[in-house]
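Reposting from the mailing list since nobody answered there.

I have sequence plus structure tokens for a pair of proteins and want to know whether others read the tokens the same way I do. The first protein:
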Amino acid sequence: MKKKRHEKIVEFIEKFDIETQEELARRLKEAGFNVTQTTISRDIRELKLSKVPVKGAIANNYMKNPLGKWAIELKAEHKLIGDIHFVKISEKNQSAEIGYVLNQNYWNQGLLTEALKVLTEFSFEQFALKKLELLIDKENPASKKVALKSGYQMVKKFKGSNQYSAKIRNFEQYEQRKNDYEIYRKKSEIGEI
């Protein structure tokens, strides 16, 4: 029964925009499953499912393994406008590199900054990571702005090969550690940032 319930949950989240656990429970009951809030919470945890809201957009993550890719959707239009993802993750170091891309028509609206803030919080709070990194092409000032607005700090500059063109480029590495995040979050809450 549990396996069938899990399969139905995955089917529902792929088919519908499930906003709450209550909505998921209602749909499961309509499908003939006898569930409680506790059952739903346990199933979500066991399936490693999460939904991360972003104002004006929504980043959905339905993960089956530690590496995740979240779609950034313009909620009002149900339109995919970008993604934010773990490029690589180190369980040993409890760290991850984050990458992101956003359709140019939606730049300078704060959507990517908000998505990065949500994934940063999620990474520290839910995945118990200790450090997050962003590798940004020096010629991409918009991405540097997103990193800085999200509490990341530039820690080093280096030359490297662009993953798409294989050309040697100048990069900057931005980083946020969990303790820095907690300080940044507290300052944000009291309006210092």
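The second protein, same order (residues first, tokens after):
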Amino acid sequence: MTTTVASFPELTRTDATVAMVTTWRVGDRDRQLTVTEAVAGAWRTRHWPSADLLSYSVFGSTRGDTLLHYSQWTTTDSAAVREQLRERWSEVNASVPGIERLGGHQYWRYRSTQRRPRTSTPGCYVTVRAEFSRPDARRWADGVFEASALDPRPVPGLIGAHFHLSLDGRHMLNLAEWSDEQAHRRQVDESGGPVRTATQLFPGLTRFSFERFELLHHLDG
């Protein structure tokens, strides 16, 4: 996949109160790029909606079948801006029918760890999602940080990891920046360790998954 992204989202910006994350299933790699181009076109034909919206990013899964939309906001209550986003999405639907929207959540960034300086666009972004039967997302994230402290070995290729909690506390999204996809594959292939135990054996964890993405489109307000 080839991208022409000139900038990338600053995931730790302090003026972002909430992140809105939605996922679209688009079918295959050709449609993934076609939909991304349609999204870019819908933004080019309109003014920036409002100062409430800080940034808008589109990530494409390395499998080629989904798009992740990540936007940063100053407020959790901006119905007028969201209506303008829906207008853009309607334009995209008209251009590329058949997109399946899988829903989304509002998150607030809880904790981040920066492992190495980021001087260019990361070669790979990885989403780790966890869902819980109770509002335990914060406790789960804290447990991951505690487990990381027990295993202080460097993680080759990891640039930074940014843990987001849903407003109801039942969903966690870790959006991690990696140097490249292979670095993350090598890390997954390593067995055991306190971090893996903390992430996957947590009481009340009902779902755990990860997916690799590449940044396809990014806009700052």
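Reply #1 (J.P.):
I read it the same way you do. The helical segments are 29-44, 79-95, 137-150, 181-189, 194-200.
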